[in-house]
Amino acid sequence: MGPTASGKTALACALADAFPLQLISVDSALVYRGLNIGAAKPDAATLAKYPHGLIDIRDPAQPYSAAMFRDDALAAMQDITDAQRVPLLVGGTGLYFRALQQGLSPLPHADPELRARIAAEAQERGWPALHARLAQYDPTAAARIRMNDTQRIQRALEVIQLSGKPLSEQQGNARARFPYRVLKLALIPPDRQRLRERIAQRFDAMLQAGFLDEVRALRARGDLHPELPALRAVGYRQAWQHLQGATDAREFRERAIFATNQLAKRQLTWLRGEVDARVFDPDGAGSREVAASAVGLFLGRAPGT
Predict the structure, then answer these.
(1) Domain ranges of the chain
(2) Which of 40, 82, 199, 264 has the fewest Cβ atoms nearer than 10 Å?
(3) Reported pTM
(4) DSSP secondary structure, the chain, as one string
(5) Dihedrals phi, psi of 255, to nearest 5 degrees
(6) What pLDDT tens digit does each residue of the chain (305 aa) get?
(7) Cβ distance 73 to 89 under 8 Å?
C-alpha cells in the first residue's frame, strides 16, 4: 500500500521475483481499459512479466464499485491460492482495501437506469439540489457526504429509492468474513516535499508520453462524459476540462498536480490509520531487503524458494 508515485509497483515486482507471489491491482482507475498513461498503468512489458489481476476489466462507460472489487478480488485470490501461490495486492485505493478486508454492508445492487435518471436530473438542477434532497431523506448521510461528492450523493439517493430506507440505517450491518491472514506493507515517504516533486515529475512525463492524446481519444468516442467514475479519476477530470477550453495549458498542469497531491494526502491519512502495517521509506537504503525479509518471515520461507 502507499500514496500515488511512491513506488508500489516496483517493490511488488521485486517481491514477485523473490517469492511465489502473484499480483492483484487495488486501484480504482486501473480497472478501466483506455486509462493508461494518466492512470500510471504498468506498461505492456511489465504486465507481460508480472501479470496483474483486475487491470483492464471494465470499459470506461461501465460503473465499478468497491463491492464489485471485493467479489473480483476474492475470486482472483482463490485462483492464486489454488495454484499454490500467494496473492500480493498492490495499489493505493484505500476504500478497496477496506472493503476487501472488512466487508461491506449488504446494500441494493446498482441500477444503471436509475443512476442515469439521477445523473440527468443533476445535470438539469445541479448536484447541490440533489444534496439538499438527500438531507431531507437521510440527514446523517448528507452530513458526512460533501456537496461536491457526486458519486456518493448519487449512490445514497439510489439506495433510498431502491430500498425505501436511508443509507445511514443500512450501513454497519453484518459483514462477510475475510478468510485470509494478512501482512500489510505500507510505503510512506517521510519527506512530503520529495513526494510532491515525484508527483510533478511523473505528471510531466505523462504529458510527454501523450496523456492529452489519450484523453482526446476517450472524448472522441462520443459515449463518455465527465460524470462517469472513470473520468472523475485524478488527472482525467482536469484534462477533460482543459480540452473543453476551461483552462489553458499552465492552469491545467497546476490543477492536475494539485489534485494528485491532494489524493496523496488523503491516501497518507488513511495509511496512518493502518496501525498494524509495516511502514517503509520507499527511498530508504535497503528498504526492499527489509520488505523481503518481512515477507519471508510471513511466508516461512527464504527468498527464491
Answers:
(1) 8-104+176-299, 112-170
(2) 82
(3) 0.82
(4) ---TTS-HHHHHHHHHHHSSEEEEEE-TTTTBTT--TTTTPPPHHHHHHS-EETSS-B-TTS---HHHHHHHHHHHHHHHHHTT-EEEEEE--HHHHHHHHH-----PPP-HHHHHHHHHHHHHH-HHHHHHHHHHH-HHHHHHS-TT-HHHHHHHHHHHHHHSS-HHHHTTS--PPP-S----EEE--S-HHHHHHHHHHHHHHHHHTTHHHHHHHHHHTSS--TTSGGGGSTTHHHHHHHHTTSS-HHHHHHHHHHHHHHHHHHHHHHHHT-TTSEEE-TTSTTHHHHHHHHHHHHHTS-TT-
(5) -65, -40
(6) 999 999 999 999 999 999 999 999 999 999 999 999 999 999 999 999 999 999 999 999 998 888 889 999 999 999 999 999 999 999 999 989 999 998 876 778 778 888 888 988 998 899 999 999 999 999 999 999 998 899 899 999 998 888 888 888 877 655 678 999 999 999 999 999 999 999 999 999 999 999 999 999 999 999 999 888 899 899 999 999 999 999 999 999 999 999 999 999 999 999 999 989 999 998 888 999 999 999 999 999 888 77
(7) yes
- Return the residue matching grid coordinates 486509462: 35
Class of domain 112-170: mainly alpha
- Domain 8-104+176-299 matches domain 112-170 at the CATH topology level: no
